[in-house]
Each structure stands twice: as C-alpha cells, then as structure tokens.
C-alpha cells in the first residue's frame, strides 16, 4: 500500500511543477466559462426551467464543469495518454516486471495528477464565476463530504475508462484512434456540450445511464442537489459503474499481459 | 526574400507529405482518428440541434441562421487548424531543445514548426463544417447578390487567416513562456466557441472586445450579417464585414512580427 501512496505523492509533485501550464489552463477555463454563461443565459431566458434547472443552477453547472474538466480528465489526461504511448512503444515491458499491480500503479499516478489539478484548477473557475454571477453552493456543511466523495468517484470512473482505452493498444498497437473516439463519447455523455438534463426524450435517458454521466453530470448534480433519485441513488450509481469498470479493467489487464509481445532482444 | 516566399509552399508540402505517410503507417488508428475528429466537432453542432429542440430562435437567429454562423466559424477554424495548428507544439520543442534542429535545416523554422506532426485527421472539422454549411444554405433564404457571394467566399479564407494568425501568435508567446500552449486555445478554440453564436448575446463589452481588440467578429459574424442583410451592432455600418480582408492582413503582419520577435529570444536548453 505504501508504494502506491508514494507513487501518488510523486505524481502530485510532478504535476505541481507545470506552473505556467496550470495558470494558462485556469485562464482558458475561465474564458470558456464566460462564453458558456452567455449561451446558457440566453437559452434559459428563452426556456425558463429547462431540464429542471433554474438560471443559478445552469450558471453554477458551467463553472463547476470548467473546474472539473482537467481533474476528471474529460479531454483525456497526460497520465493515461502516457500509458497508451508506453504500450505502443513497448516500454510497457518495464512496467510489467515491476513488483506492483499495473492497474494500481497507474491508478496511483492518475490519482496524484487529479488531486493536484483539483486543488490548483478546480476551485479557481468557481471563484471567478462567483465574482460575476449569483452561483449556488451546497446548503449545509454535512453536504461537503458527500460532494467530495462524488467528485472522487467521478475521477475514479473516468480513470478506469481512460485506462481501458490505453490498454486497447495491446490489440490495435496505436491507442490514439480509440482515445479520439473515447473523447467523443466523453464530451457528449459527460454533459460537456450541454447539461444532460437538457437532452430531450430517450437520448437523455440513455445519456444519464452511461458511465460518463457518473464522471461529471452526477457529481455536479450532487453539488446542486438536483439528482432525480436523490443523492444516495446518485452515489450508488457511481459506485456501481466503478465496480463494473474496475473488474473489467483488472480482467483486461490479465488478458493483455498474457498476450503481450515485446519486440527486440 | 521574394524567392524564399515563393519556395515556401513546395517546402511546406514536402514536410506535410512526410507526416501524412508516417500517420498512415497505422491505418486502423488513422481511420478511427479521422472519424473521431469529425464526430468530436459534430458534438458542438448537436448541442445547437438540442437547443433548438427546446427553442425556435436564439438571440434573434433562426436555426438556419445559427447553422450558417456555426458552419462559417467552424470551417475557418478547421482550415486554420489543419494548416497551422501544429505550431502550438513549438513549446515542447523549445523545452526539450529539439527546436535547434529547425534552425540548422535549409527550410524556414516557421514552416517546419507549422508542419510539425501535421495531423491529416484535422480534415474532420472542415468536412463536418462543410456538411453543416450545405444544410444551412438550404434552410436560409438569402437574397444573393454578386457582392454577397464574393463576400461569403472571401470571408471563409480571411476567417481562416485570422484564426491562423492567432495560432501563430500563441506559439510565438511560447518562446517567452514555455508550457503555455493552452493559453492560445482560449483565443482559437474559444474564439470558435464564441463566434458560432450571435455575438450580441454576450453583451456590448464583448462585442467591442472582439471587434477592436481580438478581431474575432471579422472571422464570420460581420460577413454573415452582411450576407443575411442584418444590421450590425453598436451602430456600426452594415458593410463592416467588407473590412475583413484588411483585418486579416493586419493580423498576418502582427503574427509575423510576433514570431520573429519570439525566434530572436530563443535560447537552447540544457545544463
């Protein structure tokens, strides 16, 4: 256990050295935040109460989302992209003869990254947004641990998806194509292009049932207190997907490491 | 100088052909990336479709008019991204010192940086934008005149040039602050996200900013207003869209100065 903690700590430190990248990321998140607020203000003015959100809900959604994009890794994350790169180049062989579990190793690496980005990038867009707009915050103190739990579960679900995508390289050599497809699904079903509550009819039902919903839409709804089945059901939904994905990831890891062929000699 | 400029297209072509060959070495992955890239861009437009399942007009624009704004903005960015988008990788080259290699080759460093890792999959965006454009033109009733036709075609080119200049300026800034690749995204991809909507919904200050500071409004908004025969905001003349070639020329000048200034500051890395 100690070794995984040590990996996570070092990964956290590694990402904390990219200071200018962090600042420019926060700036970009804020610019997009203002653009989306302009769009959502117009949309919710034309259709008040769309998807059960009022205007403060919609605007809070925007700023929470901008803070979560990097930690959750909606566009993919450096860590899992590196894993894919290692599978392609064959460097994965080095990872495989370490006396650690491949899945837990990369989980720790990704967790360190996510923890740094959550601390450094997560809150700032929310503060920027709150200076200009009237935003919503959890109504009582005991809700905060629940919000944090939802966020952590969202990050873990996102990690297992990205891990599976990177491992696809064991079969198709180059996982970048799969990364691109995973990006489409993640943009669409995590609620990045529009909150999932605004998706009409059966598309909305399908979107809300996917694991991507568990990465961003569900944690945001926990913050807003807008989960249709209540916060308990929302957490169960996240845990359910996490278990399914973790088991799949472990299974795929076993199969992949059995069939791996590393060139050279 | 003139000779160098004349040689540039052939040199650029040689470089990108090399990169295209390298990406085609993994055909399955390339097809997935092209499909993926088209779909990623399609999601933006799906957002517009979903919005119009709830409303009939957005900021005074009908669905067809919104599609026209979206298509022109996405087409301009897509072309700029295809041709110059790779230039943002320059920060990584500067950090690792690999930029040195550009300076000793007999091709301008700018061309090499712009062609670096040329991503053919970025054709996905222009392809998708072109499809939306056809849909848009079939939905909107435009009173076509020669002036409007010329304006429309020219605006796609000038829009791409404006976005391309922003990509180059962002890259030039990385000579000063390495690792700031994401900063330029707020002007380029952010600019596309902004200009796909009628700008007046963002308020007068934003319209002023994207007219006089970062001239994103000239990419497609003013030209489209001209083509649709809609009045311009802020009491500006309705023909203001006609100025977009001038704006594009000014941006190219600025980008060229920025790149040169950045290049002069370059110092290799190492200890």
TrEMBL record, chain A:
Keywords: Membrane, Transmembrane, Transmembrane helix. Coiled coil: none annotated. The chain crosses the membrane at residues 20-43, 140-161, 181-203, 233-256. It holds the Pfam family ABC2_membrane_6. This is ABC-2 type transport system permease protein.
Automatic annotation (TrEMBL), chain B:
InterPro entries: ABC-2_transporter-like (IPR010390). The keyword Ligase does not apply. The chain crosses the membrane at residues 12-35, 42-61, 149-173, 206-228, 240-259. Pfam families: ABC2_membrane_6 (PF06182). It comes from the Bacteria. Keywords: Membrane, Transmembrane, Transmembrane helix. PANTHER family: INTEGRAL MEMBRANE TRANSPORT PROTEIN (PTHR36833:SF1), SLR0610 PROTEIN-RELATED (PTHR36833). This is ABC-2 type transport system permease protein. It comes from Kribbella aluminosa. The lineage of its organism: Bacteria, Bacillati, Actinomycetota, Actinomycetes, Propionibacteriales.
């Amino acid at each position: 256990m100690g070794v995984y903690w040590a990996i996570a700590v070092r990964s956290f430190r590694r990402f904390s050295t990219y200071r200018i990248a962090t600042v420019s990321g926060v700036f970009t998140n804020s610019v997009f935040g203002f653009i989306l607020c302009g769009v959502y203000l117009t949309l919710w003015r034309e259709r008040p109460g769309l998807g059960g959100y009022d205007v403060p809900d919609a605007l809070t959604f925007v700023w929470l989302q901008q803070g979560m994009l990097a930690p959750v890794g909606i566009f993919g994350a450096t860590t899992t992209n590196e894993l894919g790169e290692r599978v392609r180049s064959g460097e994965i062989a080095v990872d495989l003869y370490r006396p650690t579990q491949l899945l837990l190793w990369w989980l720790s690496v990704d967790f360190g990254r996510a923890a740094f980005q959550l601390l450094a990038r997560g809150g700032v867009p929310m503060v920027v947004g709150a200076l200009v707009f009237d935003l919503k915050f959890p109504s009582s103190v005991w809700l905060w641990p629940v919000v944090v739990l939802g966020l952590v579960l969202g990050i873990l679900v996102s990690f297992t998806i990205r891990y599976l995508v990177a491992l696809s390289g064991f079969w198709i050599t180059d996982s970048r194509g799969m990364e691109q497809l995973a990006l489409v699904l993640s943009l669409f079903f995590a609620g990045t292009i529009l909150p999932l509550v605004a998706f009409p009819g059966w598309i909305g039902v399908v979107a809300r049932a996917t694991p991507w919903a568990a990465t961003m839409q569900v944690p945001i709804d926990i913050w807003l207190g807008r989960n249709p089945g209540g916060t308990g059901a929302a957490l169960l939904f996240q845990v359910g997907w996490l278990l399914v994905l973790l088991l799949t990831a472990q299974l795929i890891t076993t199969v992949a490491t059995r069939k791996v062929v590393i060139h050279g000699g | 100088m003139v000779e160098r400029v004349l040689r540039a297209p052939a040199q650029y072509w040689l470089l990108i052909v090399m990169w295209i060959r390298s990406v085609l070495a993994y055909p399955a992955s390339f097809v997935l990336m092209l499909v993926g890239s088209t779909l990623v861009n399609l999601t933006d437009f799906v957002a517009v479709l979903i919005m119009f399942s709830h409303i009939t007009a957005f900021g005074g624009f009908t669905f067809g008019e919104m599609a026209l704004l979206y298509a022109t903005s996405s087409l301009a960015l897509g072309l700029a991204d295809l041709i110059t988008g790779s230039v943002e990788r320059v920060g990584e080259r500067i950090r690792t010192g690999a930029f040195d290699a550009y300076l000793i080759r007999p091709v301008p460093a700018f061309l090499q940086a712009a062609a670096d890792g040329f991503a053919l999959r970025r054709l996905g965006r222009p392809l998708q934008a072109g499809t939306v454009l056809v849909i848009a033109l079939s939905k909107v009733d435009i009173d076509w005149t020669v002036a409007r036709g010329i304006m429309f075609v020219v605006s796609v080119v000038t829009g791409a040039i404006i976005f391309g200049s922003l990509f180059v300026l962002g890259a030039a800034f990385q000579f000063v602050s390495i690792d700031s690749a994401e900063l330029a995204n707020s002007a380029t991809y952010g600019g596309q996200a902004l200009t796909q909507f009628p700008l007046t919904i963002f308020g007068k200050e934003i319209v002023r900013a994207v007219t006089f500071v970062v001239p994103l409004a000239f990419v497609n908004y003013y030209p489209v207003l001209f083509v649709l025969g809609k009045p311009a905001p802020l009491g500006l003349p309705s023909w203001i869209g006609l100025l977009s070639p001038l704006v594009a020329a000014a941006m190219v000048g600025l980008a060229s100065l920025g790149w040169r200034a950045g290049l002069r500051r370059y110092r290799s890395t190492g200890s």
